[in-house]
Every structure is written in structure tokens, then in C-alpha cells.
Design goal:
Elements (H helix, E strand, L loop, with lengths): L9 H4 L28 H23 L5 E3 L2 H10 L5 H10 L10 H14 L4 E9 L7 H11 L4 E2 L4 H15 L17 E10 L12 E6 L5 E19 L4 E8 L3 E8 L7 H6 L2 H10 L1 E10 L1 E8 L1 H9 L1 H4 L13 E12 L21 E3 L4 E7 L5 E7 L8
Helix pairs in contact: 2-3, 2-5, 2-10
């Protein structure tokens, strides 16, 4: 697992001219090298560490499915792992905390800071609903300190299965549905067999654009899977859209950031060529690097088109986590602070639902035209692209995905 640090200076990352986009040159952003005050906050540092695990998890899943659409809210799995570490002995706790990059933090009370992060995310009107949970084998006797700490810091109690398959299925699905305000239903088609420790993460997002799209301008347009193959999909379009824009010459891609209401923004990464591999972009993403991109993008107005999406993505992540050097959790971990009985991780289940449509704020803020660059820029998400959706206040990675073929995406 590589630990990608910021490997390009912001002043050299972005060039705002291309034969496709501009008649002239836009000045590159200049950012002086200095200690970033953003990371002086323990909450922001923790959000960065947990998000770096989330980028690792996405990368590992994407490597297993290089030509498939992927949509994840991997922070939910980071949260579940962080919570289960409360039940780990020193060996197992250290393994989990290293994978979450906690070894790079100076915070002595990580779980209290994580509680603050979860409260921050849940209290803001992000349009995000998410839940993480620990489920345990039937009739297990848990240590009361573990139960109390899990509820104190992570907001819910672990669930011990009753052994009644019908009752357990109903309880588990009702719990997820209730905690996501009815947005994630039927998380489990059936209760998996052979559960010792099961971690689940579920999330739903439907944001409201700061500058909404006109449904009348949504039309069927071609999305090019490659240079020879295209599919017709509904595309939301608009002109003179205020965005933040950049061109990364190393990744050979254009980047556009669009804001949602409630302090969330989405960053799209679009390769300049249809045949460009997204792997290079995926391998370079870290919380710190994306934060630097966020600081370096320039305010411009552009002509824009985005596929209208409604995604329902589900994945069992057991094999993926084992490939991330967490195999000991599935073999012979030490969960002695959870129970006196020997336990091991057996299932890691994730479900993410994402909607991107025309909806937006009824009264968008006034745009300062004088503060924005004016060039004939166009940005059309009409071939495979990536996106990251983050909290503006702390940088937490809320959603990440890649669209290889929007025709295959179903609601």
C-alpha cells in the first residue's frame, strides 16, 4: 500500500489552456509553500487520515474492476473499522490503526475526535445519509466496556444476531433504512451465513447544486466508452456556469469543481483523451493532494454537460480488504476487548446510492463576474471520468466513483 503524499507543487500543477478549451492562456495558480493551517485542527487531521484509508479502499476495489463503474462511500467502512478497533487487543488495534493512518496522528483521543467528525457530518445539511455498524455472531456475550464505548463514540450499539434468520434480516434492514431516513432499503437480501464479525457501511447522497440545471436543457447525448463505441444517455447542460477549473498536465486531465448547498463540493476528473487510462489519476489521489488541488483551482465560467445519474452500488469488500494488508483480521485477530470468545472478521458489506439530477438552490448566490476568468472553456463529461465528493470544511471524502459506461448504471 503506497502512501501517496503531495508530489506536485500547486504552482506547477495547473495550466489553464488546451487546444480544446481556450483561445489563449490563463495564468497558472501560484501557491506559496508553507505549513497549511488547515491541518492544525485535530478533526481535520483525523478526517484526512480516515479519508486516505478511503482512497486506498477505493483504489483496491477499482483495481479489481478496472473497466466497471464504481461508486463508494468508503468513509463508512473506515468508520466501522475504527469502531471495531475498540475491541481489539494491542496487536489487532495497531493493525487497524495503521491502516487508518492513525499512527501519523498526535491525537491521544482518536475516538473522541471521530465522534466530533461524525457529529459534524451528520449535523450539516449535506444531503448525505450514512451509517456504519458492527454485527456479531449469535448469542455472543460482549464485554460491557466495548458496548458502552462503541455507543459513546460511534452512536450505535453492536448487534448480536439472535439466530432467527427472519427476525435478524428484518432488524438489520430496518436499522439501515431508519438511520438513512428511508433512503437505503433492503441492505441485506438475506443474512449471510457464517458470521463471526460483520462490518457494514451504507450511504445515500442527493445534493442540491448551488446553481441548478434547467431540466429543459437535459437532452440525450453520446457518451463515448471508447473511440469506436458510444451510448446515448441523458445529459444535463448549461452555459456560463460558475465553477473552479484546472488542467493537470501530469495526469493529462481537466478538473472541474462544482458546489452543492450545505458545504459540499464535487470534483470531476476528465482525461483529455477518450483512451486515457483512469488508473494514473486513481493512483495519485490522497486527501492532502486533493486538498492542494482544491486550493489551486481557478474561478471561471464554462459551458458544461454532466450525465444524469441514479446509482445503486453494492459490494462485498472482504477480498478487497484482505488485499490491503488486513488479512490478519480475517484469520486470527485479537478481539479480546470485545469478548472472551475467539472472533474474526468474516464479512464487510457496503451499499452506496447516489443521485445527480437537475435539482438545486432556488435562490443561488450572486456571482461576481469580475472575479472570474472569461475564456471559451467547455467541459463535457462525455467519456469515462472520475469524481470525488468532499466536505468543504474538513476535507472528509464522502463519495468517490468512476463512470465507465453510464448506460449500465441502474437506480
Amino acid at each position: 500500500m503506497r502512501n501517496y503524499l503531495v508530489f506536485l507543487l500547486a504552482s506547477t500543477i495547473f495550466s489553464f489552456a488546451s487546444s480544446q478549451d481556450a483561445a489563449g492562456e490563463v495564468p497558472t495558480a501560484v501557491v506559496e509553500e508553507e505549513e497549511d493551517p488547515f491541518y492544525k485542527s485535530p478533526l481535520n487531521k483525523l478526517a484526512s487520515s480516515a479519508s486516505n484509508f478511503a482512497y486506498d479502499l477505493y483504489r483496491a476495489q477499482a483495481n479489481k474492476n478496472p473497466s466497471s463503474n464504481i461508486f463508494m462511500s468508503p468513509l463508512t467502512i473506515a468508520t466501522a473499522l475504527s469502531s471495531i478497533s475498540l475491541g481489539g487487543g494491542q496487536r489487532t488495534q495497531s493493525l487497524i490503526q495503521r491502516s487508518l493512518y492513525y499512527d501519523l496522528l498526535n491525537d491521544a483521543d482518536i475516538h473522541a475526535t471521530y465522534k466530533e467528525l461524525l457529529e459534524n457530518l451528520s449535523s450539516s445539511p449535506y444531503g448525505l445519509k450514512s451509517i456504519s455498524r458492527v454485527m456479531l455472531e449469535r448469542r455472543l456475550r460482549m464485554r460491557i466496556e466495548f458496548v458502552n464505548q462503541l455507543e459513546k463514540f460511534y452512536g450505535n450499539k453492536p448487534r448480536v444476531l439472535s439466530g432467527n434468520t427472519r427476525l435478524d434480516l428484518s432488524e438489520a434492514n430496518d436499522f439501515v433504512q431508519k438511520r438513512t431516513n428511508g433512503k437505503v432499503v433492503k441492505f441485506f437480501p438475506e443474512v449471510p451465513s457464517g458470521i463471526s464479525v460483520l462490518l457494514l457501511g451504507a450511504a445515500y447522497f442527493k445534493g442540491q447544486w448551488i446553481h441548478k440545471f434547467n431540466p429543459g436543457q437535459t437532452t440525450m447525448r453520446d457518451f463515448y466508452i471508447d473511440e469506436q463505441t458510444s451510448v446515448s444517455v441523458p445529459m444535463m447542460s448549461a452555459s456560463n456556469v460558475p465553477v473552479r477549473y484546472g488542467l493537470d498536465s501530469d495526469f493529462n486531465c481537466k478538473i472541474v469543481q462544482l458546489p452543492f448547498t450545505g458545504g459540499v463540493s464535487i470534483m470531476f476528473f476528465l482525461p483529455l483523451k477518450f483512451t486515457e487510462n483512469l488508473t494514473l489519476i486513481e493512483e495519485g489521489l490522497t486527501s492532502e493532494f486533493v486538498h492542494d488541488i482544491d486550493r489551486a483551482l481557478q474561478s471561471v465560467t464554462i459551458t458544461l454537460s454532466i450525465p444524469k445519474l441514479k446509482v445503486n452500488y453494492a459490494a462485498e469488500l472482504r477480498d478487497t480488504l484482505q488485499e490491503m494488508k488486513l488479512k490478519p483480521l480475517f484469520q486470527s485477530p485479537d478481539f479480546s476487548k470485545l469478548s472472551s470468545k475467539s472472533l474474526k472478521l468474516t464479512h464487510v458489506m457496503h451499499k452506496a446510492i447516489l443521485e445527480l439530477n437537475e435539482d438545486g438552490a432556488e435562490n443561488p448566490p450572486t456571482v461576481d463576474i469580475q472575479a472570474r476568468q472569461h475564456f471559451p472553456l467547455e467541459f463535457h463529461l462525455d467519456h469515462p471520468f472520475m469524481f470525488v465528493l468532499r466536505s468543504d470544511s474538513n476535507g472528509a471524502l464522502l463519495f468517490i466513483g468512476k463512470v465507465m459506461n453510464p448506460k449500465e448504471i441502474t437506480g
